[in-house]
Amino acid sequence: MMWVFYLISMPLTLGMVLLTLKYFAGPYVPRYVLFTVGYTWFCSLSIIILVPADIWTTIIGQHNGGISFFWSWSYWSTFLLTWAVVPIIQGYEDAGDFTVAERLKTSVHVNLVFYLCIGSIGLFGLILLIILRKYRNVTILGFAMACSNTFGLVTGAFLLGFGLSEIPKGIWKNVDWTFRQKVLSQKVAKMAVKLDDAHQEFSNAIVVAQATSKQMSKRDPLRPYMNVIDNMLLQMFSEDPSFKPQGGRFGENDMDYDTDEKSMAALRLQIKRAREEYYRCKSEYMNFVMEALELEDTIKNYDRRHATGWKFISSFRPERAGALGSFLDMIELVYRCILRKQLEKVLAVILGCMSAAILLAEATILPSGVDLSLFSILINAVGKQEVLVQVNSVIIFFLVLLVA
Fold first, then answer.
1. Between the CA of residue 362 and those of 152, 160, 390, what are the distances in Å?
2. Which pTM value belongs to this model?
3. Which parts of 175-222 fold into alpha helices (H)?
């Protein structure tokens, strides 16, 4: 029956990765970046496939070489992606240089500085252990594994600690429409200020680039680099014709970018970062505004439900036509104005119980003879029924992922 589980879990995991990529990816993200991010997420989510199968083989006491291989593949793929591949690609994409070799050089340099700082801390700890003459039997590999596990546990504790408390509490509080309106009003106001600042920075970068281009002659050795920046600006304006630089002004050193190739790369990097920050702030601002307007729509429809004949009237789209359209409007009102609040309360309670179960399981993880882990109890309750063991494991993982 193991193959049945794989037939379900593999497409499910791939579907989650593809949907997440489609939701978060920008329109002009390079394909190799999409592939790398997708593969990284798949390696991370492979626990949905591997852990249920591993639990089953452990229960029946059967060693499975295939699962051991896939665990090794998942671990080392994640390790290399985390510490080498993804940082290099991220540094390469963030670099403002004009050639592939220079962008790779910049990326490697930035990452080497980071790893040297981390390595210095680890070396200091190793020297301290040697000086204190403790743990003489500890090898460098063992010390490195201990540091890696400590880093993972501390990071997981911080992230899980946030999810255990904030997610259930946030869902429960947001059920109150008045509270949610106040929160959204504050977020819209804050994001409006951030968006204005980002627009100002983006406008400044564009004005500086345009002024630098105007004062640079066609025979200037740096002109080819300036042409790359000019083409980048033209592409940005063609992608978003509605954007107009406003309030751009010069600083003291803003006209010093045309001195060498490095300064031109710095100008290009400044434009890229300003553009990314502007569109990030714009996206968040629009999301908060749309959520606030939709919430206002929901409140109005709830207050006028008797006058409208229990039909949802949206401010963003025309009323649905026909008998089926009227029925769908009624279903939408019942869901958005009544059922949704109750479902969110139920979800908050479930996630709160999951948080308590996780804390209880972690607090009693030491062998004490008493099994207080809800997850262990649920898996042991189904005995040696393979399908139920795997289904229970998958459900538990999804609930834990929601909390985390």
1. 16, 12, 22
2. 0.77
3. 177-215
